[in-house]
Amino acid sequence: MTDYQHILLAADFSEQAHYVAEKARSLADKYQAKLSIVHVLDNIPMPDTNYGTVIPLDEDSQDKLLEAEKTKLMRLGDQLVVDFANRWLLWGIPKQEIIHIAEQEKIDLIVVGSHGRHGLALLLGSTANSILHYAKCDVLAVRLRDN
Question: Is residue 76 within 8 Å of 21, Cβ to Cβ?
Answer without folding.
Answer: yes
